[in-house]
Amino acid sequence: MSVLKITDVSKIFAGPTVAVDNFSLEVGDGELVCLLGPSGSGKSTLLRMVGGFERPTSGLMTIDGDDITQLPPERRPTGMVFQSHALWTHMNVFKNLAFGLKLRGLPKEQITEKVEAVLELVGLAGYGTRGVNQLSGGQQQRVALARSLVLEPKILLLDEPFASLDQHLRERLREEVRDIQQRLKITTLFVTHGQDEALAMADRIVVMRDGRTEQIDRPDVVYREPQTPFVAGFIGTMN
Ligand code: ADP
Ligand code: MG
């Protein structure tokens, strides 16, 4: 059963630039799909449209059959983590996570309970009173992930969340995120231009170019039979 359904979605910016070109995709319940492609291939624009931060020029998006195409971000059952974490640096970790729950009017005890549970999940138990600025880059991205997860979205949207981190930390975090994603069985769209990341994390990979799908397959198939120069070139360098 597909949870997220994207049908014939396009985004044309002034210029005109066709950032996303008649793109369709169905993502199954609990599935992690990686959008992989070179810079400028439309990955972020697509993700931002699913999150509601950008309006499609045309097309339709549904979640569990409900049309979300025109909904503002806060009314969508989606949570997004951006490349730069965009945490509120003047608030401590707890307040960053509690903010969205307060807006939803949850009672204090429930907020505390949920925040503590999600901090535990991302390996930051006991970090609630820390200032965001006192944390390492990796810890800040864990807080950003936690801030999305605490709102219990149906769909998690991750846009190159590890791009600013060093290789070693990236490898560790991608395993942590994959582990959390599988434990929560949360349907996820993960944007990256790192082939290694996509091959390691995804249930399926969508290789994008010029706003379109060049290949969509399981990672082992993309690895064995890359249909695109972008991926084939990379795999060539691994052998
Ligand atoms: P990716 O995330 O794959 O690098 P983007 O979705 O950011 O690609 O960009 C796809 C194309 O759309 C690029 O040509 C980019 O320059 C253009 N683009 C993205 N955002 C805007 C915008 N707000 N205004 C105009 N053009 C944009
Ligand atoms: Mg991008």
UniProtKB/TrEMBL annotation:
Record keywords: ATP-binding, Nucleotide-binding, Transport
Signal peptide coordinates: none
Top-level taxon in the UniProt lineage: Bacteria
Cellular component, GO annotation: ATP-binding cassette (ABC) transporter complex
BP terms from Gene Ontology: quaternary ammonium group transport
Gene Ontology MF term list: ATP binding; ATP hydrolysis activity; transmembrane transporter activity
Residues covered by the ABC transporter domain: 4-235
Family named by the database record: Belongs to the ABC transporter superfamily.
Protein name: ATP-binding cassette domain-containing protein
Source organism: Devosia marina
Residue window of the full protein shown: 1 to 239 of 344
